[in-house]
TrEMBL record:
InterPro entries: Heparan_SO4_2-O-STrfase, P-loop_NTPase, Sulfotransferase. This is Heparan sulfate 2-O-sulfotransferase pipe. It comes from the Eukaryota. It comes from Drosophila navojoa (Fruit fly). Signal peptide: none annotated.
Length: 412
């Protein structure tokens, strides 16, 4: 019998080659997948690094924004009499416009060693009654501070009061009106309290009355004007006015409502002409200095007046415990807590606990950006207002440094 040929065990050369190629393909695919994974991980790492870089940059920018800008002037809290830095030269002195730069300046001039007591820059001790008086500046964030005062009133056991809402605010008042306001409203409380009203600075001595604890807020003069321009045109603001005052409030024309601030300014629309020493236009609140200068119309009403600005500086230094700004939120809260603890103890914690709600208080979402041309023109017309604003921030800066100095001394 012939041999029986069984099935061939193993593979032919062709089959082995095909199998090898298949294995190589699978290996290549695995390597490709592995390479893709590595590339994906690398891409993810790069993305994370870029995100962290951008986030760090953003945080750094926000920290810089929080730094206090400082501009020396005649009645400077740093004693820089005669060393005023003009707007033209301000860019050459950027270091002094930061909190660190201010600290270095005080240190280099020998003033830092004398800043050992907050009493040197705190007028709270001069108050003669337990009343916090907030003669608020329009469009400087006063609603936010009023909301904070309501919370603080519960925490620190005082009454948070305000004036009755009016169709037209009485900023300047005659002697009879002022006396009645003092007796019937501001001083008409026998317990610890705060009282808030839109009005120009009032000299309590002239009425034979004890001094309260004066506080206020300021805002960049350009930003205030732009803010008011669009705030007065906001639909929700107009609806609220109609709801509150009914037929007494006259709705403006559609043409007026559609105005654009840039065009209004550059075309010299009467509403946006800021004539120097002008005695009119009290209603648009263009004069931030008025709220610190006082009730003397001849002195304080002329728009962008240097005399009014200097008087406002004197009143701030002599009579205000703290004048802060939400543009330096942490600095303002820290100084308020340190200088007026009876009313502001715990202010920082309360503020940040409800920050999300506070950020939208009286905020107008619709506000086109100001063009560079319009900004330059507006700045030239607000020189005294800008100097006063920078002076106030300078004073706040020094108060903050004094607080830090005291804290450091205590720790040592």
């Amino acid at each position: 019998m012939g041999a029986v040929v069984g099935p061939v065990l193993g593979h032919s050369k062709g089959q082995e080659r095909a199998l090898g190629e298949e294995l190589e393909l699978e290996l290549a695919l695995e390597l490709c997948e592995h390479r893709r994974s590595v590339e994906l991980i690398a891409l993810l790492a790069i993305s994370c690094t870029f995100f962290l870089f951008m986030h760090t940059n953003k945080l750094n920018s926000r920290l810089k924004e929080m730094e206090v800008k400082l501009q020396p002037s005649e009645f400077s809290a740093l004693g820089l009499t005669g060393n005023h830095i003009s707007g033209h030269d301000a860019g050459k002195h950027d270091d002094i416009n930061t909190l660190h730069g201010t600290y270095q300046y005080l240190k280099s001039t020998g003033q830092l060693q004398h800043l050992t007591s907050t009493a040197q820059v705190n007028n709270t001790r001069r108050a003669q009654l337990d009343t916090l008086f907030f003669n608020r500046v329009p469009k400087a964030g006063s609603e936010k501070l009023m909301a904070l005062l309501k919370l603080l009133a519960k925490r620190n056991k005082f009454q948070a009061r305000r004036d009755h809402e009016q169709l037209y605010e009485t900023i300047l008042m005659d002697t009879g009106f002022a006396r009645h306001l003092l007796e019937a409203e501001i001083l008409n409380c026998s317990t610890a309290n705060s009282y808030t009203k839109h009005m120009a600075f009032l000299n309590f001595t002239e009425f034979g009355q004890p001094w309260p604890i004066y506080v206020n807020l300021v805002r960049d003069p350009l930003e205030r004007l732009i803010s008011w321009f669009y705030y007065a045109r906001a639909s929700w603001y107009l609806a609220d006015r109609v709801k509150t005052f009914g037929s007494k409030f006259k709705m403006p024309s559609v043409q007026w409502l559609k105005k654009d601030f840039n065009r209004c300014l550059l075309t010299h629309d009467p509403e946006c002409v800021y004539e120097q020493l002008d005695m009119n236009h009290l209603g648009d609140h263009r004069r931030q200095t008025l709220f610190f200068c006082g009730q003397q119309r001849a002195l304080c009403m002329p728009f962008n007046s240097r005399s009014a600005m200097q008087q406002a500086k004197r009143n701030v230094e002599q009579h205000y415990a703290v004048v802060g700004t939400w543009e330096d939120t942490n600095t303002t809260l820290r100084v308020l807590e340190a200088y007026i603890p009876r009313y502001f103890a715990g202010a920082t914690d309360l503020y940040y606990a409800m920050q999300s709600n506070m950020e939208n208080v009286n905020r107008n979402a619709f506000r086109p950006a100001l063009s560079e041309q319009a900004r330059a023109l507006l700045s030239r017309n607000l020189t005294q207002e800008i100097e006063f604003y920078q002076f106030v921030r300078q004073r706040l800066n020094k108060q903050f440094i004094a607080v830090q100095q005291m804290a450091q001394s205590s720790n040592n």
